[in-house]
Amino acid sequence: MLVTLPLPSADPAAPRVGIVVTDGYPAEDPDHDTPLLVAALRERGIDAAPVVWHDGAVDWAAFDLLVLRSPWDYPERMAELTAWLAHVEGATTLLNPPDLVRWNLDKRYLARLADAGVAVVPTVYCDDVDAAGAALAARTGARVVLKPAVSAGARHTGLFDADDPAALALAARIVAAGNAVMVQPEIPELSAGREKALYLVDGELTHAIAKGALLAPGGGLIGGVYQEDPQPVATTDAESAFARRALAAVQAVTGCAMPLYARIDLVDSAEHGIVLLEAELFEPALNLHVAPHVTAVVADAVLGRLNPAR
Predict the structure, then answer these.
(1) Hey, how many other C-beta atoms are within 10 angstroms of the C-beta on 261?
(2) SS3 203
(3) Are residues 22 and 73 in the same domain?
(4) 203 and 131, same structural domain?
(5) How many domains does the chain have?
(6) Could you identify which of 179, 211, 244, 248 might form a hypothetical disulfide with 148, taking C-beta atoms 3.0 to 4.6 angstroms apart as the criterion?
């Protein structure tokens, strides 16, 4: 979808907001949100523009606020990202805040949330190949999902029979890359595409989407590429309450204030009940192109962070 942006504000007193992106996206996974959000912010008198996070020419202190949106190449540039976060937090305000982003980067945060009473998918975290092999052996006869503790976009994630040699080979590749391996049981409802992503803006539930199944049995992605099919879905009262509890637990565990945005991924499992798959507090696609009414909500929330007394 092409969006024509209005001209930036000519008012030199207009607040400057940078929407943090990267400089290229695969055709099957574009950034739909940024053009819509930038346009809505400009309509509100904000001098908003997309800005590439790893552009060394950017003067970050020139912005009144930065909003993380789609820096989706960060898994291959972790050292650079860590340095960038440290630099930016000394220059201006970044949302969501760097401390929360750093906490959220490593999916071992799920263990912290489990300790805080949030139901999560049972997970074994393995720092070496022997531990991964033992975790796989413990689930012989069943299917498992393997993924790195630090990743995005289902990178290096696979669905396997536990005794499939390809599962241990993936674990070895993850460990060799300096990452921990997460070993989880297959959730049949998840494999059937019944995951829901619930979005909260300033703590208020705005919309939910289902993106369909992603993992092909035996490893790899369905269709060979990461391609979501976001569709708006309704939520039950129990799912909405779960998402709010999960976000409250994030605040309690981290000591951070209410984040500007959050995506709570969950699935209602016959075996485990409603469980948290991920609490995405860094760079979730908001899917504004399939929930256009939410664009104004996000823009108003950004404006509220610029003008807290509003």
Answers:
(1) 24
(2) coil
(3) yes
(4) no
(5) 3
(6) 179
Q: Inform me whether the pLDDT recorded for 273 exceeds 90.
A: yes
Q: CA separation (Å) from 58 to 53, 64, 88, 138?
A: 8, 14, 11, 50
First to last CA, the chain: 33
Sign of the four-CA dihedral 56, 304, 6, 291: positive
Task: Name the residue among 98, 11, 14 with its Cα closest to residue 53.
Answer: 98
> Is 119 a member of any domain?
no
Cα(246)–Cα(241) distance, integer angstroms: 9
Span 34-75, pLDDT tens digits: 999 999 999 999 999 999 999 999 999 999 999 999 999 998
Residues 6+ away with beta carbon under 8 Å from 178? none
> Mean of the pLDDT values across residues 232-240?
97
Model confidence at 2: pLDDT above 50? no
pLDDT at 310: 41
Whether residue 102 lies inside any domain: the answer is: no
Q: Does residue 252 or residue 154 have the better pLDDT? A: 252
85 domain-assigned: yes
User: Domain containing 139: what range?
Assistant: 124-186
Q: What are phi and psi of 68, to 5 degrees?
A: -65, 130
Q: pTM here?
A: 0.90
Does residue 143 contact residue 162 with C-beta atoms inside 8 Å?
yes
Q: What CATH number corresponds to the domain at position 244? A: 3.30.470.20
**Phi and psi of 87, rounded to 5°?**
-70, -45
Question: Would residue 39 count as lying in a domain?
Answer: yes
Report the C-alpha gap between 176 and 171 in whole angstroms: 9
